[in-house]
Design a protein that fits this description.
heterodimer; A: 217 residues; mainly alpha; 3-stranded antiparallel β-sheet; 5% strand; B: 171 residues; alpha+beta; two-stranded antiparallel sheet; 9 helices; 15% strand
Chain lengths: 217, 171
């Protein structure tokens, strides 16, 4: 194979990815793994023709090396730790000095006490149900209006309307309550006239006898 | 409910004062993950969740004393909140360090006598009782042996403490 055709970058990347997976799954320990072969392979196969592809491989290998250093650091710091604690206590530190040793080492735990799995499940189901409900959204029919909006004022004043209603019914009186609305079929009209009647009763122009259900003057 | 909400629930739950979060086994069981690559999948899930948590000032952590994964506030927030449970009570910090030293030396347990010696103090009973009440240690009623609970693995960054100790001794 010609030098310019040799490119092992992809193979090296795959190998590093596999190592990472095996470290994560606990199959291998990085401290037991020799990284020299990877770096040697990069060194031996890199050339001006493939240098672009090798930058990622080199980066991945260095990442692995950093991880190994980190593990080594942790191992070294935990070695003989009880002796280190004893040595420290032998220096007779006062309470404030010991307290200072803990500075920056305390952690604040994050926890949610009141939310149970049951509640989360319930909330989730409810949310999903509510989201799935199909609402028919119908567009409103736009009413044609004049460009200028004007507040329409009733043609007659309220008192005039009451008077007109009184004029209409006083010839009927006395009569039963229902008879006042006898000729009226429109519910809105009946309701309107009922309001007038209440006002007339309040003003004392018309009287009502409950026992006989009679309206009179 | 998706994996993120289940993970959030499991990692932030408090089973007892000394049991917060969940073990890998519990998480895999809850998510019904049984395939042979479950460990890789588990790591991916935790990495994925930690990316969501990072902007909120939260981190995923592991308590090696009881193998529980749990969530903590990041360093910046912890400084603001003041996480030190012995603020203004340096005597308790000192006694706890002695218990920790002695437990490391005696494979996990210690005695009142040993703490008194290390602490160079006649009476450590009150401190020990308070530490027991706050969940940091347990006292065997029959033997009066003292042992640390996993709570210290949640509340203290032991790795950081070891490094600080090594640096202190170098000074």
């Amino acid at each position: 194979m010609k030098v310019e055709e040799l490119d092992l970058s992809e193979k090296i990347n795959k190998r590093i990815a596999l190592i990472k997976d095996e470290v994560l799954s606990g199959k291998i320990n990085l401290l037991d793994l020799q990284l020299n072969p990877i770096f040697s392979e990069i060194k031996d196969s890199i050339s001006i023709y493939n240098i672009e592809n090798y930058s990622q491989s080199y980066r991945n290998a260095v990442e692995l090396l950093n991880q190994k250093f980190e593990e080594l650091k942790n191992l070294l710091s935990s070695l003989d730790i009880e002796k280190k604690f004893e040595d420290f206590l032998k220096t007779n530190p006062n309470e404030a000095q010991i307290s200072d040793l803990f500075r920056g080492c305390w952690r604040k735990i994050f926890h949610f006490e009141p939310i149970s799995m049951k509640f989360l499940d319930y909330a989730s189901n409810r949310y999903v149900k509510e989201r799935l409900t199909n609402f028919n959204i119908e567009h409103l029919i736009r009413e044609k209006t004049n460009d200028q909006f004007l507040l329409e004022v009733p043609k007659f004043k309220f008192t005039e309307k009451i008077s007109a209603f009184y004029e209409k019914i006083y010839k009927k009186l006395p009569c039963f309550f229902e008879d006042v609305f006898d000729n009226e079929l429109d519910q809105i009209e009946i309701y309107e006239q009922f309001i007038y009647l209440l006002h007339l009763l309040q003003l004392g122009k018309v009287k009502y006898q409950k026992d006989t259900n009679t309206l009179y003057l | 409910m998706n994996e993120i909400s289940i993970l959030m629930y499991m990692l932030s739950r408090k089973k007892s004062i000394q049991q917060i979060g969940a073990t890998k086994k519990e998480i895999l069981k809850s998510l019904n993950i049984k395939n042979k690559n479950k460990s890789v999948y588990f790591q991916d899930l935790l990495t994925g969740l930690s990316k969501y948590l990072e902007p909120l000032g939260l981190q995923i952590n592991f308590n090696s004393l009881n193998s529980h994964w749990f969530i903590i506030y990041d360093n910046e927030l912890t400084e603001l909140i003041s996480a030190n449970p012995f603020e203004g009570r340096p005597s308790l910090s000192a006694t706890l360090l002695c218990v920790l030293t002695s437990c490391l030396k005696n494979s996990g347990h210690t005695s009142f006598q040993e703490i008194r010696m290390l602490r160079n103090k006649k009476d450590v009973k009150d401190d020990i009782k308070i530490l027991e009440k706050e969940g940091f240690l347990e006292i065997d009623k029959k033997t009066t042996n003292i042992r640390l609970t996993p709570l210290i693995g949640y509340k203290l960054d032991l790795q950081k403490l070891f490094v600080r100790l090594a640096l202190k001794l170098k000074e």
